[in-house]
Amino acid sequence: MYYDKRPEYLALHQQIGERLVPLGLGVVEDFNTLRTDTQAKNIAAWTPVIAEVLNGFASFDDHSFSRYLPAIYPLATELLSRDLAPEVREAVRRIFVRVGVAKGITMS
Question: What is the CA angle 39-19-46, rounded to 5?
Fold first, then answer.
């Protein structure tokens, strides 16, 4: 819904973001607490969701990305301490590349 270009969604873009962003942040935060030794099935089930949430953040326009960066950055950094599936690792990489561009550290 956030990226849907239909007029009815564009008019509600900010409200959609205000509801989906906290939900996505909460999902990543909860994922970071899952224990690999006892919750492997939950980790496997939530892995594609985490990748989608992170890719969504990485795809935000510049203003929205900068706005939510203080919230997503520590969660993405915490993910680095986990054994990540390739799709999550790539999504985390996209976030960090985007941070580099947004903060003038890298060109792309």
Answer: 20
| Band of residue 20 on the pLDDT scale cut at 50, 70, 90 | confident
Could you say which DSSP state residue 105 is in?
S
CA distance 53 to 11: 22
The three-point CA angle 106-98-28 to 5° equals 145
> Rounded distance, CA 76 to CA 29, Å?
9
Domain ranges of the chain: 48-103
For the chain, the straight-line distance linking the first and the last C-alpha, in angstroms and rounded, comes to 27
Give this prediction's pTM.
0.87
